Amino acid sequence: MSARPRNLAGVITFEQVSKRYPDGTLAVDGLSLEIPDGATTVLVGPSGCGKTTSLRMINRMIDPSHGRILIDGKDITSEPAPLLRRGIGYVIQNAGLFPNRTVLGNIATVPLLVGMSKRAARARASELLERVGLAPELGKRYPAQLSGGQQQRVGVARALAADPPILLMDEPFSAVDPVVRTELQDELLRLQHELGKTVVFVTHDIDEAVKLGDRLAIMAVGGRLAQFGTPAEVLEAPADDFVAAFVGRDRGYRALSFASADALPVHPEPTVKLGEPLRGNGWLLVVDDTDAPRGWVNADEHPAGQPVRQQDLRLGGTLLAPGGSVRTALDAALSSPSGRGVAVDAAGKVRGTLRPGDVFGAAERAATSGSTEAYYDEKQLTATEHAELTAAEQGADRLSKDGR
Ligand SMILES: Nc1ncnc2c1ncn2[C@@H]1O[C@H](COP(=O)(O)OP(=O)(O)OP(=O)(O)O)[C@@H](O)[C@H]1O
């Protein structure tokens, strides 16, 4: 990701690290791993495979039985643990906030600890509150007066307060409902794009791992590293049967997230504005005054010449925006009542629609060669395609003239 700031510190190296608990449990077994700086590495694997133990060895909440851990080449035991932890933010499930401190008080904890003035610490806390997407007035509340998702955002803000190069996150979003969870994941992606920290994230959810991780470390029970690679590498070429089973039966579908849909042909689509009279037949795409899609209307079930009202609309499915993947394109096509997926530009205006056949072709292409580009260079030149495009363009012209 080119927009990320570079020159970061925070490469974390595990050298043959093992952890055996006093009761004999071997939680981590000979883990060797280089976690790159400025990127998100997700430790993912089934319950009990040693993810949390591995994470907590980085900030010395747990000491290895064997091996060593280095940060930027320096053994983490070469300085006192409290000093080490100043450079490492830590976020856990249920946020772990101090219940008797306000939100701002919670976020300002570490800045105050490292000697920042009260005033500067409060200013920093307010800035972070905004950064994690929370309204300033929430600063005065106590954690119990916040939703689970809001508490988790405060947890992230608190971990970022001392601007540590490293952020450790242990199942931070697993206690919230799926909608909030998606919002928090999106927020983390946005924040990470701005901040470029070395993030080590623990989850047992492969979907979350694929969404958030630049690298995945797949761990197997017994504390063994089964595979380390980018999400695309892991989904496309699982190292062994365990990884193949863990990444799951949907992995072919998930792998489409890494194939760009930018080369997919976008066909002109006639549109009709909300509130304007309807003409034509079949499914018609309804837009608002800014040309953003609002839904579909079936002209065969609508009195001709009558204006299209909000209540006539069948809401469209997901949209494909620039930079989207073949997975998004496929979902856009499958979730649209017309079967045609809507593509929008960066401003959210309708660009046209995707044909399911094209999207399936791209999916097949991505699965077999990993690239869709060549296919569509070829395909866009075929005579039928050209004829279809022209006809659709004429249809679009006619409709927009009639419709206004
Ligand atoms: N303090 C402890 N004493 C003994 N065994 C422990 C201790 N902490 C963890 N374990 C064991 O070590 C193994 C790894 O635990 P760990 O919490 O690191 O796994 P995990 O992958 O994070 O699991 P989960 O996804 O369920 O949180 C498990 O078998 C666990 O029971």
From TrEMBL:
Record Gene3D superfamilies: P-loop containing nucleotide triphosphate hydrolases (3.40.50.300)
Domain ABC transporter: 12-247
Presence of the UniProt keyword Cell inner membrane in the record: no
Pfam families: ABC_tran
UniProt keyword list: ATP-binding, Nucleotide-binding, Transport
Keyword Nucleotide-binding applies: yes
Enzyme class: translocase
A GO term for molecular function: ATP hydrolysis activity
EC number in record: 7.6.2.9
Superkingdom to which the source organism belongs: Bacteria
Family, similarity comment: Belongs to the ABC transporter superfamily.
Protein name: ABC-type quaternary amine transporter
Species per Swiss-Prot/TrEMBL record: Nakamurella aerolata
